[in-house]
Amino acid sequence: MMSQAMTRTYFASLNVMLKIWKKVLIPYGLILDRTERLVQEVMKEMRDHHIAILCVLQGGYKFFADYLYYIKLVNRNSDQSIPLTVDFIRMKSYCNDQSTGDIKVIGEYDFSTLTGKNVLIIEEIINTGKTIQTLLSLVKQHNPKQVKVASLLLKRTLQSMGYRPDFVGFEIPD
């Protein structure tokens, strides 16, 4: 039989967990399933090409890690392995959770390394589309063979510039 202290602790923990669960929009297992399907879509479209993958930091790193895991599975389980190069870029358009409208690349990035390559940009969430459109214009100035964007989340917002990535995991409300 449970003691009175254990019962209070148990129910206090349960209440905390219920509050957390109400905030979860998309369960992690569903995110992993959709990530795997996104990889299959991208690989179907870009399978015959060396792919230069560019991860937009900071938010995109977890999605990117899961994405790479599934690419490795596809490469391991297929007849033909797809050569990849991986790079990271950090963009800043927010200050204290508010968009500044001024989008910058943090640090130095040599976009000329993407010349003539098939580029896949991985982004965690696209809010208005301003940041990704800025990045796309910077990448396209260096004449890649093709550029595709995969985003885990696409936010439906009135501030949207109408940009839609090539591959989307989930559309979410504002």
TrEMBL record:
Question: What protein name does the entry list?
Answer: Hypoxanthine-guanine phosphoribosyltransferase
Q: Name one GO biological process term.
A: purine ribonucleoside salvage
- SUPFAM superfamilies the UniProt entry points to: PRTase-like
Instruction: Name the EC number(s).
Output: 2.4.2.8
Q: Which UniProt keywords apply?
A: Cytoplasm, Glycosyltransferase, Purine salvage, Transferase
Subcellular location(s) of the protein? Cytoplasm
Gene3D superfamilies per record: 3.40.50.2020
Where is the major localization of this protein? cytoplasm
